[in-house]
Design a protein that fits this description.
Length: 351
Amino acid sequence: MQTLNPPTTQPRSQQFASDNYSGICPEALEYMLAANAGDVPAYGNDEWTQRAADRFRDLFETDCEVFFTFNGTAANSLALASLCQSYHSVICHELAHIETDECGAPEFASNGSKLLLASGDNGKLAPEAVEKIITKRSDIHYPKPKVISLTQTTEVGTLYSPAELLALRELANHYSLRIHMDGARFANAVVSSGLSPAELTWQSGVDVLCFCGTKNGMAVGEAILFFDRPLAEDFAYRCKQAGQLASKMRFISAPWLGLLETGAWLRNAEHANRMAAYLEDQLRGLGLSLMFPRQANGVFVEMPEPAIERMREKGWLFYTFIGVGGVRLMCAWNTTAAAIDALVADIKAAL
Ligand SMILES: *Cc1c(COP(=O)(O)O)cnc(C)c1O
């Protein structure tokens, strides 16, 4: 065997740019290695995939349809395409990942379903704004609203309460719309809310959930859960056509089973949320203000531009997509208090 020689260009072992900078958590890796022990049928016709799907049904306390894709862009885009015809539209927040970070994939996968953008405080869709879009036009020249897509937790780290979800469901019922949830950080939402996965999804009116494994500690992989089963008709074909049917699917489904069976999915999210709370405390201690309430594993902090520049010079990586002077800091399953202390010490010096 050759000795491995990993690149050492990263100046720091931990960063706060995104929770997908992290590696694979031990439980996911252990199950992945176990799945590597022998040959099994391909394309999801294996026991790992069956067990993972059943485990999702147990966890969500309902007989939902379960599918796996490689990433979140594909999960969201294909799920939305299955809820829409090409002449329909999807209402989402102006900060939604499907709008800002998926390169038009939802429109591409649906052959043209248009995204209609609504505003709302703290990254959340406000029912009034959504209703205004739904009722704005009813003529044939405008793409017919068919889906409300929301992100839990949101792109700015906040949480929809069941009451807020149900208010959107009421609108959806009134106007015959469906509800898609981008659960890139669904585990963090479960921990933060103290509610069950069922309470946060189908019991609050969600039809389809895209549940992200990558940000929770997997190497790669998303689960798509259809609570309204008829909506999943032919979804497997859609995945295959889009190049999202993994032939060695067990390497997505086994790590999922590892997260679910061992409870690591919750522990990982709990840890990330706890670390973000610690980071929030430290930043407030420096006199800094948050841009949004910290409710899960993301901290959005206001910092003077020169300090942001100095932090970059010191090798820290982070996103500032929220606007001038706003820094997003994400905690993950593996974030250490020591890394936070190092970050905060550098911020203190940079201010
Ligand atoms: C990370 C993320 C996704 C998934 O992104 P991929 O890079 O396609 O896996 C989807 N939605 C949100 C809100 C995200 O943060």
